[in-house]
């Protein structure tokens, strides 16, 4: 195996770039992009799952990638991290082209992802899961593996780092448990903590909130913010609008494989195209504030319409 | 051995009653105890029956099958009486035409002898492949064959010295692993299984082919390459320790063989406790997760395939040395499956698992073979000929061993050394 390159440690909190002045249009150039992509296209049969003309991800901020189901968000994740091959397109990370670069090399460059369906290593303990994340381990090379004196000190420092992270993510009580025995939310936490063991510059979270209970959600939000505050770049896919509004600095909206809108959360939420395509008419109002009678009558009218058309069809079917 | 734990039942009112699995197991074991296994399965039938009754009484709304469980218990009791009777009669009297002491001696001889060593080595290789890395190699016989033929062909056909030939025999499985791994390790696991089993068969048929019999010996195989190994033998007389006895030649083979096993175990132990071993176990769990953390999964799988293949090659090399001849039929696919059986008996992903498994496997196979052989031979055999005759008895032992494997999977799916908690995770 080639020598592992230690990813550059993110420099601690430079002043956060202000994106509010940027023009809110798809593919807008950012002041300091960490990821740049052009003409990325991936088709499954006749369906273009991803067809992105231009995308830039700003360094040092939290970018949210939103869009309805099937919009191609996860496919774009897979393409950017090398887990899937595009039909065409090119993209770069920190200026390094990532075309046809294997996933493990992408991770070593400092671009680490998590998965929508968490991938914890069920039959390894939590701490072993964490230790696996550390890069450049001497003990992971075949010829030095059998000689513990070559890797013991490194293993110890990795374990200390892992324990710190476990404490930060409140998983220290589960240290010696099998990862397979954790709950869904704890698995999300473990996956995020494990990704941090790689010390990534860009961390890509695929639906970090899915299946997490509300109490844990708040602390997860805090964790994601703290990633940015230590100087990392975060890109995440999410359906939870509260989370998007709460923590993201920039939002990219995808629909049917394309980027349809970009902007700060408030800009995107007020963009009529986005509202129609994705959020629905009442996205910004609390349900209790709406006129209940109006809603009820709307619903009834809809029901009446449906039953009448259904019975119409029924009549048509009858001989 | 821990009893099966009960999952907490959810919403009992909504679930139809079902027969408790232990009740079925008990009845099956009871029948098996009185027929095929000459009572050996019967105590287990008793035990499972009791377990089923307890479970049914604790949860009468959920489970039924009391009748089956009782049947299992009655049959189990009868079988246990039968088992105890023939054991006592066989060991302490001459009433039975079967010498139980001899049966145990034969069984122990095989469990500690050269055959067990061959399968222990092959199973250690499979443990690295399947147990730790999750690579489904169904062609371990192929790795054994190239190890054995690497030695024999080099010495007999090409007439290079014995020691360089041993080197070639160790190198051949490395090449085979790389050849197999490059196209298949990037694919899904089942493709490796198909590719390896096919390769093992291709190798066996090639080694036995008429066209290449000048070089490879054809179906008669090759002999006359193990002289150096036999000359090194320091033993001059037969070794008899009372419970086991080996000829001078076998004593030498057994000494060398168990030393090889010990070295292999040491290597596996040292590697699997290291971060390298941790990466392998992680690949077994989820390779994409390992990829996402910056590990070159392909390289690790290749290293595992090579390492396990070399252990397989050592098994072949040892087989070739101990019997001083290589014959293609020794490397058929059932060798692979016997090695897998040994691995599963002992417990996969445990250092000692494959060795203990191989010993138990050979103990059972040869003990049953000896017992059934004696029980069906003579003018007035213990087992009447209308049940089975002498030629059939050598096959019945495999049926009984299969049954034993089933028992193991029911009572201890993780094998002898396995960790029950790991199996519990699979059930979630």
From TrEMBL, chain B:
Signal peptide range in chain numbering: none
Places the protein is found: Cell membrane
Chain segments annotated as transmembrane: 22-47, 68-92, 112-128, 135-156, 162-182, 189-207, 252-272, 304-325, 331-349, 356-375, 395-411
GO cellular component, one term: plasma membrane
Keywords linked to the UniProt accession: Cell membrane, Membrane, Transmembrane, Transmembrane helix
Main location: membrane
MF terms (GO), sorted A to Z: branched-chain amino acid transmembrane transporter activity
Keyword Transcription attached: no
Mode of membrane association: Multi-pass membrane protein
CDD domains reported in the protein's UniProt record: TM_PBP1_LivM_like
Short name of any one Pfam family annotated for the protein: BPD_transp_2
Domain DUF4190: 23-84
Protein name: Unannotated protein
């Amino acid at each position: 195996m080639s020598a592992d390159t230690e990813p550059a440690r993110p420099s601690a909190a430079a002043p956060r770039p202000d994106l509010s002045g940027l023009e809110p249009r798809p593919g807008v150039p950012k002041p300091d992009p960490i990821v740049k992509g052009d003409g990325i296209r991936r088709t499954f049969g006749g369906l273009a799952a991803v067809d992105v003309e231009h995308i830039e991800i700003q360094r040092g901020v939290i970018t949210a990638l939103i869009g309805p189901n099937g919009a191609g968000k996860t496919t774009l994740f897979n393409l950017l991290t090398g887990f899937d091959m595009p039909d065409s397109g090119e993209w770069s990370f920190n200026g390094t082209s990532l075309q046809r670069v294997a996933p493990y090399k992408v991770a070593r460059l400092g671009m680490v992802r998590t998965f929508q369906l968490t991938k914890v290593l069920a039959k390894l303990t939590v701490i072993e899961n964490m230790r696996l994340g550390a890069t450049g381990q001497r003990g992971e090379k075949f010829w030095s593996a059998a000689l513990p004196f070559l890797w013991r000190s490194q293993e110890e420092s990795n374990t200390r780092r892992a324990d710190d992270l476990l404490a930060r993510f409140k998983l220290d009580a589960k240290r010696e448990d099998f990862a397979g025995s954790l709950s869904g939310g704890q698995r999300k936490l473990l996956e995020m903590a494990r990704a941090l063991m790689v010390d990534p510059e860009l961390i890509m979270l695929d639906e970090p909130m899915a299946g997490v209970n509300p109490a844990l959600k708040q602390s997860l939000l805090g964790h994601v913010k703290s990633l940015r505050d230590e100087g990392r770049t975060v890109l995440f896919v999410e359906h939870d609008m509260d989370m998007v509004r709460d923590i993201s600095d920039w939002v990219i909206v995808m629909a049917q494989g394309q980027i349809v809108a970009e902007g700060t959360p408030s800009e995107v939420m007020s963009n009529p195209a986005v509202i129609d395509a994705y959020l629905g008419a009442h996205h910004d109002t609390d349900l209790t504030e709406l006129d209940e009678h109006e809603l009820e009558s709307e619903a009834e009218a809809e029901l009446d319409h449906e039953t009448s058309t259904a019975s119409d069809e029924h009549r048509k079917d009858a001989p | 051995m821990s009893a099966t734990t009960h999952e907490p039942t959810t919403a009992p009112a909504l679930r139809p009653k079902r027969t408790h699995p232990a009740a079925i197991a008990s009845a099956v074991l009871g029948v098996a105890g009185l027929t095929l296994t000459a009572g050996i399965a019967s105590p287990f039938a008793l035990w499972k029956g009791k377990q089923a009754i307890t479970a049914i009484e604790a949860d009468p709304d959920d489970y039924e099958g009391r009748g089956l469980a009782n049947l299992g218990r009655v049959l189990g009791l009868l079988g246990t009486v039968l088992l105890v009777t023939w054991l006592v009669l066989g060991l302490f009297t001459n009433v039975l035409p079967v010498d139980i002491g001899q049966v145990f001696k034969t069984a122990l001889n095989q469990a500690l002898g050269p055959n067990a060593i061959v399968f222990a080595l092959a199973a250690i290789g499979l443990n690295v492949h399947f147990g730790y890395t999750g690579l489904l190699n169904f062609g371990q016989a192929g790795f054994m064959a190239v190890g054995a033929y690497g030695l024999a062909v080099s010495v007999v056909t090409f007439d290079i010295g014995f020691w360089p030939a041993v080197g070639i025999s160790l190198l051949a499985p490395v090449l085979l692993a790389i050849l197999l791994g490059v196209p298949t390790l990037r694919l899904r696991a089942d493709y490796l299984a198909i590719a390896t089993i096919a390769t093992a068969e291709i190798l066996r048929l090639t080694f036995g082919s008429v066209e290449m019999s000048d070089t490879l010996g054809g179906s008669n195989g090759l002999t006359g390459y193990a002289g150096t190994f036999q000359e090194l033998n320091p033993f001059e007389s037969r070794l008899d320790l009372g419970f086991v006895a080996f000829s001078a030649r076998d004593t030498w083979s057994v000494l060398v063989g168990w030393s090889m096993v010990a070295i292999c175990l040491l290597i596996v132990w040292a590697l699997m406790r290291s971060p390298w071993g941790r990466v392998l176990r992680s690949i077994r769990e989820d390779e994409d997760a390992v990829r996402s953390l910056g590990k070159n999964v392909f390289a690790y799988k290749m290293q595992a395939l090579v390492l396990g293949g070399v252990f397989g090659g050592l098994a072949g090399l040892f087989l070739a040395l101990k019997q001083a001849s290589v014959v293609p039929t020794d490397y058929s696919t059932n060798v692979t499956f016997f090695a897998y059986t040994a691995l599963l008996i002992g417990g996969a992903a445990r250092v000692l698992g494959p060795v203990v498994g191989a010993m138990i496997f050979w103990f059972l196979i040869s003990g049953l073979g000896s017992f059934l052989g004696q029980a069906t031979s003579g003018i007035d055999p213990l087992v009447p000929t209308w049940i089975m005759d002498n030629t059939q008895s050598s096959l019945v032992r495999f049926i009984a061993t299969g049954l034993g494997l089933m028992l193991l999977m029911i009572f201890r799916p993780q094998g002898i050394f396995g960790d029950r908690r790991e199996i519990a995770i699979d059930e979630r």
